[in-house]
Amino acid sequence: MALNQMSKKVTNGIWRIIPSPFITEIIAQAGYDFQIFDCEHGAYDYAQLSNEIIACQNQKCKPIVRVSGINKVEVQRCLDLGARGIVFPSLSSFSDFETATKLLDYAPNGTRGFNPFVKACDYGSKKVGEVQTPECITIIETLEAVKQLDKILTLTRIDMFYIGSYDLSAQLNCIGKMDSPKLIKTTKEIIAKVKAKGKKIGILVHDKKTYDYYKDLGVTTFVHSVESFKIKKYFQSNLQEFK
After folding, report:
1. Over the stretch 193-227, which tens digit does the pLDDT of each residue have?
2. What's the CATH architecture for 3-240?
3. Most CB within 10 Å of its CB: which of 84, 108, 201, 240?
4. DSSP structural state of residue 74
């Protein structure tokens, strides 16, 4: 499949911070393509994360994990549990991004430790070449990363660039103001550069208007808010109907 054909495929997912394989199953059955289990802000330990990944895979939904940072052991454990992709937060320099890419692959291309007896290798049944290559997803959420983006885009191992709008708003001194002209301008510049390199772009959206706006700009991966927010909004709306 040609690169331009691949880039047009739109996928939809959601951030997760509440440990619950039941919620995972419900979201997957609702038709989402992926779920990002947030180990930076969420309440997951490794045992809970394992159950989430299994529940996700059982429903043919892609399990992705946002790790807390550039930590070799943490990334390795998440991959061994079966995560299909890793999201790296708080990256600034080119070196940060390059280091992140190395954590996903076995030697000689990377620094990931090899243990064939874990879930990712079907507990000894798979050979190295049969293990699915995990996605490398890096978040652009610092002004230093924005400044070095041209150089960062030369790293071919990065599969997707996710725009961390909330942290970027803090860096731009317009914290939480998603309609700030400064934030929108910076976001559009990032999208244009990433799109020009044929890479996937991800962003968080809360409504159809924002979704359509960024889809028209070339964004192909959408994260539809956070499950905690969605649950609260539903119950608030539902209760209001009876008042």
Report:
1. 999 999 999 999 999 999 999 999 999 999 999 99
2. Alpha-Beta Barrel (3.20)
3. 201
4. H
